[in-house]
Amino acid sequence: MNSPWTVAPEPFDSSVAAELWRAYYTEVSDRWYLLHEGRTTDPGELEREVAADTGDYLAAPDGVLLVARYLGEPAGMAGVRMLDASTGELKRVFVRPAMRGKGGADLLLAGAESAARELGAERIVLDTRTDLVESRTLYARHGYEETPRYNDDPYSEHWFAKKLL
What we know:
GNAT_dom, acyltransferase activity, transferring groups other than amino-acyl groups, Bact_Acetyltransf, transferase, GNAT family N-acetyltransferase, 7-stranded mixed sheet
């Protein structure tokens, strides 16, 4: 059976990657500000933050960005960067709201884990926030377990890890 989904590597600096990064950042930033300050992200701040994180850590040889397409249209992304010789970190996992519930997140996560193995990872880690309930549910469903803090990101509230077999 043919799937409407494809998942493939994408240059971190492509126009597709930039557009997905902006959509991802806008959503998570707006969710944080709405929860904590009752407003959406200031447009100037959004532009500064999107520009400040180029995603260059998702380039070879120590990283990869995957883009999921639904019927050929960019619908989501997930990245992996190596933290050390055996630990990969999951970054920028995102599926457009209109595409959620159609299996894209599962495929992206499987693709990211496979890419991490190809980069030499024996273990993959990630951080997320309490309000990103859908993300935490996805990771738990795929065998990720909460682990002690491994970074100092001020917005992170939960850390997960999974052994890659």
